[in-house]
Task: inverse folding
């Protein structure tokens, strides 16, 4: 390594180290707080998990899943990606849904989008975004499905916000298309799928009031993977 490379590396270390030190310090403080509140906290945590919720949200740093819902470690199974998408060929999100439904037996699946979503904004731009193109195409498809409604909204901000909501609703629909959800609901009457939007301006979660039963019935007209028990 040349002298200038060494200088660059040591400069990088100087920049990175303090923030890592802070993280370790805060981690110890968190451990102390948890242990003070409940001396058996980490014994319980290491014994296993049985969360009631699966949360699928955006990777955006401003939307921390546990924090906005007031849920503790162990209470929510979390998957995050850019713009909270549920593409049916994405092994990552499909594995998460499958595991959460079939093995953890979650009672609720929450899709949580957020206003000011950079992923959704990027999908509204006419530009080649490289590797992001196929990912963001899912959002462009949501636009195409709801083109009439969206094009009728004259104000750009309002159209953008509505696309964020419709994108959450489409992710809910994609979750309901899975065999895991259809079969579990058929046998257990759960999980229920919910669509929420987080508002960065006031910190509040808004319920898009997805009618799960109606959406399930509608989805099963074409995507039925759990035909149900035959009547006697
Ligand atoms: Zn986002």
Result:
């Amino acid at each position: 390594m040349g002298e200038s490379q060494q200088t660059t590396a040591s400069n990088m270390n100087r920049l990175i180290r303090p923030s890592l030190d802070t993280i370790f310090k805060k981690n110890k403080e968190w451990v102390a707080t948890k242990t003070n509140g409940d001396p058996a906290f980490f014994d319980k945590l290491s014994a296993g998990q049985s969360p009631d919720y699966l949360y699928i949200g955006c990777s955006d740093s401003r939307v921390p899943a546990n924090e906005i819902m007031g849920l503790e470690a162990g209470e929510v199974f979390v998957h995050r990606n850019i713009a909270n998408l549920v593409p049916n060929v994405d092994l990552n999100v499909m594995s998460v849904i499958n595991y959460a439904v079939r093995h953890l037996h979650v009672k609720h699946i929450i899709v949580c989008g957020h206003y000011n979503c950079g992923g959704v904004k990027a999908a509204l731009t006419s530009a080649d975004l490289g590797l992001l193109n196929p990912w963001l195409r899912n959002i462009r498809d949501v636009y195409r499905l709801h083109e009439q409604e969206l094009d009728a909204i004259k104000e750009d901000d309002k159209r953008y916000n509505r696309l964020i909501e419709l994108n959450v609703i489409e992710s809910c629909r994609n979750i309901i298309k899975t065999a895991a959800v259809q079969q579990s609901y058929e046998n257990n009457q759960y999980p229920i799928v919910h669509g929420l939007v987080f508002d960065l301006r006031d910190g509040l979660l808004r319920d898009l009031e997805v009618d799960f039963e109606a959406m399930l019935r509608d989805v099963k007209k074409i995507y039925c993977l759990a035909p149900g028990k035959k009547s006697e």
Remarks:
- The mean pLDDT is 93.
- Residues 58, 60, 83, 114, 117-119 surround zinc ion (CB under 6 Å).
- The radius of gyration is 21 Å.
- The longest helix spans residues 3-37.
